[in-house]
Amino acid sequence: MNALGMLEVYSFTTAVCAADIAAKAADVKVIAFDRTRPKSEAVPAPLVMQLKVEGDDASVKAAIESASAYAEAEGMYIASHVISRPGQDMEKMAYLLDMNRDNYNKKLPKTFYGADVEAPDVDFAIGLLEVSGLVASIAGLDAMLKAASVRLIHSEKRLGGRLVTLIVKGDISDVQAAIDAGANTAAPLGKVHGKAVIANPHGEVMKFFDYEV
User: Fold this and answer.
1) How much is the CA Rg of the chain, to the nearest whole Å?
2) pTM over 0.90
3) Which one-letter DSSP state was computed for residue 189?
4) Superfamily of domain 125-206, CATH level 4
5) What would the pLDDT profile of 10-60 be if each residue is shown by its tens digit?
6) Closest to 43 in 3D by CA, of 14, 6, 81, 18
7) Quick one: CATH architecture of 3-94?
8) Cα 67 from Cα 102, distance rounded (Å)
């Protein structure tokens, strides 16, 4: 590993968007998403996510700078750091992957360390909706699926289901309509902690999700 870049942000949605920006900004590999809980309740979202990328030193720095700028603009930035020439056995921490606990993506390896996974080329958009509570998430999903021609490709439950992120795919206009409808429906039932639409998401992001579901 030439260099390891790390970015810590609030919310799963922010982490995925930041990963897409990092991968599009420079020639890096997205190797893992890790997570923890914030120390305080007075935070933008009750979930802290860490994005990790690897590549040559210059590329990793450029990727983390771009992703950090996005997170700062969204008010979700916590910390970032680049380690040049990580020490021996650093892979054990660098490649820790904490997502997909419900095994929604049955193709996703437990770790990308040593895994030969090809980043796919995609020609669609994805939308992310992150809300508090299972009732709000299910109501939001129903609204999304009824509002436009989209498909659910991933569900990420955190904090025992108290925080749920839904990811849908489709054409950009359909995804935008779906996310708007889902957020409007979910908001009265549970706080919306994140919503985003990514046009043509990078393959380094999509390898974490089973977009063929």
Assistant:
1) 16
2) yes
3) T
4) BMC (bacterial microcompartment) domain (3.30.70.1710)
5) 999 999 999 999 999 999 999 999 998 777 777 888 899 999 999 999 999
6) 14
7) 2-Layer Sandwich (3.30)
8) 27
